[in-house]
Specification:
The complex is a heterodimer of chains A (about 550) and B (about 250). Chain A has about 550 residues and is mainly alpha-helical. Chain A has helices spanning about 5-15, 20-30, 35-65, 75-100, 105, 115-150, 150-165, 165-185, 190-215, 220-230, 235-240, 245-255, 260-295, 315-330, 330-350, 375-390, 405-410, 415-445, 450-475, 485-490, 495-520, 525-555. The chains are: A mainly alpha (about 550), B alpha/beta (about 250).
């Protein structure tokens, strides 16, 4: 007999990563064997590239830092990168797993303490984070160790750092989520407040990160560099000040052989323990109140609503579009994950306008102010297409329905009507999101109105036909058996294939545009965009009329 | 076994109570049927007993444990089957049962013996190694019943337990309920099927618009003024349409 917390953790891990489901389908039933092959083929090259990137980056930063006597600049960059990623994306996972899982009504009547449910769920997220962090930290740690010719102290410190580092951002994300939901779940408008609160939290985190970098030192770059280089580890502290545990982690590893390193390791471990203690207390005092309040729902006012003129029959297609848009935007898990890119982009573009100098705008390094108008149009079109797949709205349209898909399947609607409405709904949201990002960027670079308008038109057309293909992909293998709604979007293979597919298409079209520039045939760009759009539109039409009805009946 | 004292619950934004000033006592060794029309407050009451909802007022205690003060001890003494069991679809039946066994601390030999017994009884033995998502609704219901019985709870709480069961399983299940109370345990269940309540229950309670309007054995209810000799169905229709009757 296993300990109840351990047993719960293992079961949730199994559910989350689908071990039993994999064994059942791939080994016992010998079905869907092509799935792991597709997963490996679509993710494998990215993993190899990520490992290679970290290996090369570590070497560059090591050698660059060595020139200033601070070679562990490589370590702080890696630890900071994984910490910020964990904090950022961990928030969505935590929010969804803690408060929106279908399993809460199953777990609550069991004799489990609130902190046990909280810790088991956090443990599952942490396990996934270890796997992700290994991709970044292992190549970084090994390359640094080889370059610096480190010893046993480094290896032992690195192991502790690897185990403790992701705990801190995830605990911070958990504390933010628990506090947010404690208040939000008491409201009748909890879904709207979760969405707004989540977005505001992200903007605040991003803003404070930027502010901490901006507020460092002086306006004079030369004086600032002298200041950073004259202090011991000045550069490391400057880079890591956004998230101090990343500095402790880097110094614990770099000085793993002496008391300075051990002291930093102690700071890191104590910070992790303190965070877990706060989370334990919140788990006992606050978590369950938020969960129960969330399950409660509301029952209306009890007054009979007067049905007035708005009950007139509407256009079927408009109704289908409107329902799809509402179902997406009203679920904070779907909306937060789908819209995060659209929120971050304008924030990243606009924040520096409030800072000390415009050169610090992340887009400034791209030097996009002086390029040819046709290239701008092509670039905007690709931006629309790639953001459409990043939002995952069309590529998860059927998966998001989960066990409620029967509702739409039982209605007298053709699949072409359904797909059409879903793509239109997705593209309304995607277009508004893209424009929110595009307008500040265009303003920043001083692009002309006509360039933006033509780019937007080409972008909407190209993105829409790609959205059709993404929706068809989801129709061919919808993921309907999720427990945690975030899994329907973030862990959905359709979304991953769609994202990588559109990135590959964007890369190929980008290469073509580059070739146009080199050969002086930039005038071909609108024709090329038109040709690709028409080609995909024909393919989508063929698939919607010939293949989709068969797929629809097979689900 | 179950004691509700002045329990009230009003959902957010609602002007009326889902459950209002509910006093109810379910004694050890009885099968208690909880009846009422749709939206009467049956599921809300059950959710408050199992800890899925928090009452606004009043006290819920199970087997002598106050649910607000000592929820873990209270939950240890009960097994619950909801009206729509949402079990982990990507676990196999056996994995799910082992999770529940671990949470309730059921030792290996006892677990094996009870699982053999219930899996045979519900004819789940052949599919227990399959994923739950491949089960029919009835099979999921049987698995939920097995999991709730695995730790031999002193109190067995069921929300609409007969929904989704085939006639054979339904019959078996009634036998299980009878056997369970013979051993000194208690069964509390809600149902719309009045015949089942009539056949099985030692006592029934009828709730309407959040208030308990009748409570007692079938004989006691039939002896109530104006309802002499009525069937449970007639009694139910009359009571939910008018005032009520409560036998202390």
């Amino acid at each position: 007999m296993k300990n109840s917390l351990w047993s719960l953790y293992l079961s949730l891990l199994n559910v989350n990563y689908g071990w039993s489901a994999g064994k059942y389908y791939y080994i016992k039933k010998r079905q869907r064997i092509w799935e792991p092959i597709i997963i490996a083929a679509s993710i494998g090259p990215t993993l190899v590239m990520a490992v290679w990137f970290m290996w090369a980056l570590t070497e560059q930063l090591f050698l660059g830092g060595l020139a200033f006597g601070q070679p562990h600049l490589a370590l702080v960059t890696g630890t900071l990168m994984v910490s910020i990623l964990s904090l950022f994306f961990g928030f969505f996972y935590v929010l969804s797993a803690f408060y929106f899982g279908n399993d809460l009504p199953l777990l609550l009547p069991l004799p489990l303490r609130s902190w046990e449910i909280l810790v088991a769920k956090l443990g599952v997220i942490l396990t996934g984070q270890y796997v992700l962090n290994a991709l970044f930290l292992l190549p970084m740690g090994i390359r640094y160790g080889l370059l610096a010719q480190t010893g046993l102290g480094y290896v032992l410190s690195a192991i502790v750092v690897f185990l403790v580092l992701p705990v801190i951002p995830l605990v911070i994300a958990s504390i933010l989520a628990v506090l947010l939901m404690r208040f939000v779940n008491l409201s009748r408008y909890k879904d709207k407040l979760t969405l707004i609160g989540g977005i505001l939290l992200l903007v605040v985190v991003l803003g404070s990160t930027y502010w901490m970098q901006e507020s460092f030192g002086t306006d004079d770059p030369t004086a600032l560099m002298e200041q950073l280089l004259s202090q011991a580890d000045g550069l490391i502290v400057a880079v890591g000040r956004v998230f101090p545990p990343s500095v402790w982690a880097a110094q614990a590893m770099a000085y793993g052989h002496n008391p300075q390193g051990w002291l930093n390791l102690l700071y890191l471990v104590l910070c992790g323990i303190l965070g877990l203690a706060i989370l334990y207390l919140l788990g006992e005092k606050v978590f369950m109140q938020g969960v129960i309040a969330g399950l409660e729902g509301s029952r209306g006012t009890g007054k009979r609503k007067r049905l007035g003129a708005n009950q007139e029959a509407g256009n079927l297609f408009v109704t289908l579009v409107s329902i799809e848009r509402k179902l997406f935007l009203r679920d904070p898990n779907f909306a937060l994950n789908g819209l995060v890119g659209y929120v971050l982009l304008p924030v990243m573009a606009l924040l520096p306008l409030f800072g000390q100098n415009l050169e610090k705008n992340p887009f400034a390094t791209l030097n996009l102010g002086e390029i040819n108008s046709l290239l701008i149009i092509g670039g905007i079109a690709l931006f629309f297409m790639i953001m459409t797949s990043f939002s995952m709205i069309p590529s998860t349209t059927f998966s998001r329905e989960g066990r409620y898909l029967w509702i739409i399947r039982s209605l007298p609607l053709s699949i072409s009507q359904i797909i059409g409405a879903r793509v239109v709904a997705a593209q309304v949201v995607n277009t508004i999101g893209c424009l929110l990002g595009l307008v500040p960027i265009a303003y920043f670079f001083g692009w002309g109105v006509l360039e933006v308008v033509f780019g937007t038109v080409f972008g909407i057309l190209l993105a829409s036909v790609v959205a059709f293909l993404l929706a068809l992909l989801d129709l061919s293998r919808p993921m309907l058996d999720w427990v945690n709604p975030v899994k329907a979007v973030k862990s959905n293979l359709n979304a991953i294939i769609g994202t990588f597919g559109s990135l590959a298409l964007g890369f190929l079209l980008g290469l073509l545009f580059f070739f146009n520039r080199q050969t002086g045939t930039l005038w071909l760009i609108p024709l090329e965009l038109g040709f690709v759009t028409a080609l995909f539109a024909g393919l989508a039409r063929l698939l919607v009329t010939r293949v989709a009805p068969r797929l629809w009946t097979k689900i | 076994m179950i004691r509700l004292k002045g329990v009230s619950k009003r959902y957010r934004g609602a002007s009326t109570f889902a459950v209002q000033d509910l006093d109810l006592e379910v004694r050890p060794g009885e099968i208690f049927g909880f009846l009422g029309p749709n939206g009467a407050g049956k599921t809300t009451t059950i959710k408050m007993i199992v800890g899925l909802l928090k009452p606004d007022r009043g006290q819920v205690s199970v087997n002598g444990h106050d649910l607000a003060m000592d929820p873990i001890a209270a939950k240890h003494s009960m097994g619950f089957v909801p009206d729509k069991p949402d079990l982990y679809p990507r676990l196999t039946g056996l994995e799910y049962l082992n999770l529940i066994g671990d949470v309730y601390g059921v030792d290996g030999p006892t677990r094996t013996r009870r699982l053999d017994h219930y899996l045979d009884m519900f004819q789940l033995g052949a599919v227990v190694g399959d994923l739950i998502q491949s089960y029919s609704r009835g099979m999921q219901q049987k698995l939920a019943l097995t999991s709730a019985l695995l730790h031999a709870p002193a109190l067995f709480i069921l929300d609409e337990p007969m929904v989704g069961l085939d006639p054979k399983s339904s019959h078996l299940f009634k036998e299980i309920m009878r056997e369970h109370v013979k051993q000194g345990n208690t069964v509390f269940f809600s149902t719309h099927v009045l015949e089942v309540a009539e056949q099985l229950c030692n006592r029934v309670g009828i709730i309407n618009q959040g208030k308990l309007i009748a409570c007692g054995s079938m004989e006691e209810l039939r002896r109530s003024p104006g309802h002499a000799g009525s069937s449970l169905e007639k009694l139910f229709l009359e009571l939910t349409d008018e005032g009520g009757f409560y036998e202390e």
